[in-house]
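Cross-check.
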Amino acid sequence: MSTQSIHLLSPSFPSPRSLSNLPSSSRLLSFNPINLPFPLRRSAFPLSCSCSLSPASPVLASDNGSGSSSVATQASSSAIDVDAVTEAELKENGFRSTRRTKLVCTVGPATCGAEQLEALAVGGMNVARVNMCHGTREWHRNVIRQVRKLNEEKGFAVAVMMDTEGSEIHMGDLGGAPSAKAEDGEIWTFTVRSFDSPLPERTVNVNYDGFTEDVRIGDELLVDGGMARFEVIEKVGPDVKCLCTDPGLLLPRANLTFWRDGSLVRERNALLPTISSKDWLDIDFGIAEGVDFIAVSFVKSAEVVNHLKSYIAARCPGSEIGVIAKIESIDSLRNLEEIIRASDGAMVARGDMGAQILLEQVPAFQQKIVGLCRQLNKPVIVASQLLESMIEYPIPTRAEVADVSEAVRQRADALMLSGESAMGKYPEKALSVLRSVSLRIERWWREEKRTEALELPEVASSFSDRISEEICNSAAKIANNLGVDAVFVYTKTGHMASLLSRCRPDCPIFAFTSSTTVRRRLNLQWGLIPFRLGFSDDMESNLNRTFSLLKARGMIQSGDLVIALSDMLQSIQVMNVP
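Predicted model, tokenized:
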């Protein structure tokens, strides 16, 4: 069979819409790098893909996949599952309207009901976070199961992330009060004593028994990264008397740090285990409930991450729970690259990070972490105080909007609401702000044709993975140069979809997988629209059936230009929807 070789990225290649004017025999472009007569080299391969125009392709006239011999059993062969909100957006506004930046919402007392959770899902929540610092396991179990029920009954694909408490020094639960206000000049008592009766007024429990031994008179005590500040003025047995020097709101289980002569006192924290005995019980709970991600607080080294992943694998063989490393301490910053390499993703926890480094260093470290995660192909979440004022007020400050915009400009995978959605007065409005700002900045990026200076190094660990990586790099370049409407990727594990997300193409990425758990996990990554669809190794049947199902639901139209990839055949195809 003779073929005609062309260079897809050549300036002489026909415009996207002119593909529809080509003869049907030339409309399908296929590429299989396994048959290339030369070795793959990063310097040349992504820039000039040698492709072949195949003769009359039966993909546009097959039997809609009914003859497939090995359709995955995890998804119905006659149905396709897609997030209800995304489907509505595609129908109403088209491909380019879809939001690429994902949104994580912390679920708390303000949002734990079925109606509130559905409102967040409708508003664009991609991942629901449960924070084990607060509430009982039974409370969290109810939230997790409500999210799962919402997915099953309403057609969402919201993933669940469980956040461990960690063993750093923090306050108690304030005797059950939702918060307490510390005013300038007030004397507060921080104590390691336990009380059978309600806490005395202006008294706070501390979880660390050595607290009174470690602090000294004159030390500064920061609550929640500086949301309130105290000066140690007296030590009386198990009690530490402190003068409030910066007023603020105290929240249950808030992190505590103390400074001496302008430096963080961290000797004791360095000796505390990353994963406490309570954390291990919470992790067992998360495994039993089938959460999609476990976020580990105050990670100090890659060893902790590897240990947890081995534990999860032993407790639940075949589990697909992802481990997210929270970067929020000096130790995690010192061992940043090894921690990110070992993890399945990272969170830039700016609140606690800002309590351990100089405030002016936080923006630079945020940009460094976001860039490094992207280079290493790990999803990254920017978290803490994005819209802090919206805990109390219905609109954000302009500075907060600028902060959110910068995270989107840095092309982080996801943004996270904490107190804004957990206990704030306006959780839905806060989510709406994240959504609208993300959409606007993403559109601005495309309209201005912004280019990135970020170099993406090779991350493949095998030759087969290298082929997949090069295919994805090239597909993203082709998509941008041709202005295609969408990239379709058929993936069993989600890896190839992740590689495409890393490239940040201008168009959305439709990720088709037969696994419900893989579909939810992909919902954390930039630009991916995860579908659940049974498919086979026959790409022609897969494409034909996908076109039929999506057209029937009004999500694509004849003439739309798409690129199709597969991690089973390691192939790439460019075509107009018939």
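Confidence is low (pLDDT under 50) at residues 1-77. DSSP finds 18 helices and 26 strands in the chain. Passed to J.P. for a second look.
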